[in-house]
Amino acid sequence: MFKWKNFWIVQVIYLLYTINLPINFINNFCILEQLAIVNITFIFFLINNTFIIVIFGIQLCIAKVIAMYEQKDKFYSYVTRLITDIQDLLYVSLQVFTYIQGHIFTEFDENGYSLFSHYEPKHIVYNIGRNNVQIEKNILFLKGTARTIFTKLNNIKFYNTLAKF
């Protein structure tokens, strides 16, 4: 299947840097390689209706996973099981919430249309689950850990790191 190690390593190194983990932790390549496939594991699995932080170009957004697909032989298959390894997926269907300010996101673009997208899993930066998200009408609010992670990632250092990649 696909391997996006370099993309994930850039993202994970920056995330580790921003949360001030010891540098010897970053140097352990085995751990880094495991973390380099975002935080989707048997504990933090990906499933439909889960919220994730995604990157489109250099813009971070929040997305709700609508559907997941894998490739079996020459066919695409809809996935209903828990995903514990992001590399099992071919692409995901997402409902995208764009950033307004702080911890607030909107479902609509500037023309009033809801945003839906099919993307490769390499655009997933972080799995925030369901608990740290609140939706009122068409506005999404991040809370707790999700808010902290998004705030740390959504700064100029992160964009500069991605630009070097």
Structural summary, described in words:
There is one protein chain. By secondary structure, the protein is α+β, with helices and mostly antiparallel strands. 27% of the residues lie in helices and 35% in strands. The protein contains 5 helices and 9 strands, in the order H-H-H-E-E-E-E-E-E-E-E-E-H-H. The chain has helices at residues 5-18, 23-27, 29-35, 144-153, 156-164; strands at residues 51-56, 59-72, 75-79, 91-101, 104-106, 115-119, 124-129, 133-136, 139-142. Strands 1, 2, 3, 4, 5, 6, 7, 8 and 9 form a 9-stranded antiparallel beta sheet that branches. The two termini are 22 Å apart. The relative contact order is 0.20. Residues 1-6 and 21-37 have low confidence and may be disordered.
Features:
165 residues, 27% helix, 9-stranded antiparallel sheet, disordered N terminus, alpha+beta
- Domain count, please report it: 1
Could you give the count of β-strands? 9
CA-based gyration radius:
16 Å
Mean pLDDT: 76
Low-confidence stretches: 1-6, 21-37
In terms of DSSP E residues, the strand content is: 35-45%
How would the global form be characterised?
globular
Order of helices and strands: HHHEEEEEEEEEHH
- How would a textbook summarize the main sheet? 9 strands, antiparallel
Derived structural class: alpha+beta
Number of H- or I-type helical stretches:
5
Quaternary structure: single chain
Helical content stands at 25-40%
What is the end-to-end distance?
22 Å
